Amino acid sequence: MMAGMRFPAIPPMLVDENVEVDEHGNVNWRMAWMKEIGHLQQITQEQEKAGVDPEWYRMMLFRVRGALMPPPMNPEAVMHGMPPHMQPPQNPADMQHQQQQQPPQQ
Length: 106
Description:
Blueprint: H1 29-49, H2 54-68, H3 75-81, H4 92-101
């Protein structure tokens, strides 16, 4: 991750009610992560004992990797933040409409 980049807020439904907290009431995220990894290992062992199809491993791998990927960028938000000389060319009809709305430059 890039320096200074913040993590998105965690929806309350994704946080286990039994998470460990310190004396100040802050969640111990390291322990929560370790507990989750252990849970995934336990589920994997149960699936192995049940003779799971190799497709299950593929599906789980893609789910975990997909969850760790950064969210897709919104092209609309990116375009509004770009300097005019870096924005893609516009439709000529749109450009003509914008020029008609702008006051003449002196």
